[in-house]
Structures are given as C-alpha cells and as structure tokens.
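Journal club prep, notes for RB
We'll compare a predicted complex against what the paper describes. Inputs for the fe (ii) ion case:
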Amino acid sequence: MSADTNTFQNLPEGSLKVLQLTDCHLYADTSRCLLGMNTQETLNLVSAMALEQLGTPDMILATGDLVHDASETGYRRLRKQFARFGAPTFCLPGNHDIPEIMARLLNQDGISTIPSTQQGNWSLIFLDSTIPKKPGGHLDESQLKLLEDELQKHPDKHTLVCMHHHPIPVNSAWMDSMALNNPEPLFELLAKHKQVKGILCGHIHQEFEHNYHNLLLLGSPSTCIQFIAGQDKFGLADNPPGYRWLALLPDGEIRSGVELLPEMPEGLEFNSSGY
Ligand SMILES: [Fe+2]
C-alpha cells in the first residue's frame, strides 16, 4: 500500500479504526540504542508516519516490550508520547516490561492498562502473558479466569484477544522457544466462545498472519528492530520499523495490514548474535 492511501477509507459505519504499536523497547536515556538502532527515534518516526497515513485512530493498542529497561522515566515519556495521538490507548506488558510499574505510570492522560474495553460491536481483551524475569510466555490461572469472565460477560460482542507472546509457532526455533508455553487452555476456552475473531500479538518483531481454528492470528513488526522470519537462529532483518493497522468491522470482519518506514534507519548492527 502506498503512503498516500488511507487504509481506513471506505469502511462501513460503526467500524473501529485501530493502530497497533508494539515492541518499542525504549530506554530511560533517549540516546541509547538497541543493537545500534535508536528506539526513541524510530518510535517518533513510526508514530508520525501512522498519524499521517491513518489520521487519529479510534484506539491504540501497545502490545508489550514498551520500555526495554522498564524504567519509570521511559514509561512516563511513553505515556506523554502516546497521549499526543489523542486516542484511547491500551497497554499490556511484554517480557521486558514490569507490569507493576506500567500499572502505576500508564493509567492517566487517556492511557490505560485495564484488562478489557468494549466499543461499538467489539470487545477487546488484554492479557498479561509475562513470566517475571523470563523471555517466554504463560497464561496463569488468573489470566485464564479473566479471559473466561470477559467472554461470558460480552457474548454478543465480536472479540479480539491481545497479548504479547505468540500462541502458535512462527516457524523460527529460537523465537518459538519463547512462545506462549500453554496455548492448550487458551484455545480450549476460545473454542467455546465463538464470538472471538482473532488474536493479536507482539513479541515476534515480524509480520505474521495465519488462520487457525477460525481465528485470525496476527503478529506485527516492531517500531524498532525486526527479526528474520522463518529462520531457526536469531537474525536481524533489514526491514524498517513499522506498525500494524486493524479495521474492526461491525459484522465481525477484521481487515489489517502493516506499514514500514520508507527507509531503513542507519546504525543497525546486523552481525549481532542475539539481544
Ligand atoms: Fe520485543
């Protein structure tokens, strides 16, 4: 799609326009880089591109690894940056985040860490799939209960479930070793609630789209570094930073796509062996 095309054009009335920004990996110090890439600068560029291409969305979903060093300074700055979009913003934690600090600092200025929201014909549920100090993911009993309660509360709403970790393999052994480690109870639960249309993730730093048991599974590029898809070992891709847009239609259809910066920012350390 070209930059002058508005992805949110020609949508039926009642559609929700959603912007996903994920894996921003900010630091307290704005000059710090992740594998040679200045993550604050790339978030600034991706945010500006999203606003220009999409206008103000109906909501923003920030799906984890928001602040790489989990610093209070980083979260405060992120909150102010998100607030400038002027759209309700929902944040969930990734493995680099600390949920308690997020909850303390990301619940003002239109930003929140609440577990769900209902808008129009849709319900969006935000799960915490993190395991303290571990890169992989898990949905503990409290998160599975929260999910079940939300699904039972809103059976007539089309539903998008959001979490940081990917629940099915993405054909990349090193990344799949850090996937959600208990997808079975998740999919068992979702199979009982037919209103669920899709699952949206962060974590994998690459575009991913797959239909699985009538669910649309979406993974997304990071606002900073991207990983090589389909490769068993860690590797940095030369894809620029980007975002995903989603249009949630009133009949339950999900339209979605990703947009990347037109140019690769300089400095990425392609020979890095891990992060
Ligand atoms: Fe990440």
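Talking point for the session: The chain has a mean pLDDT of 96.
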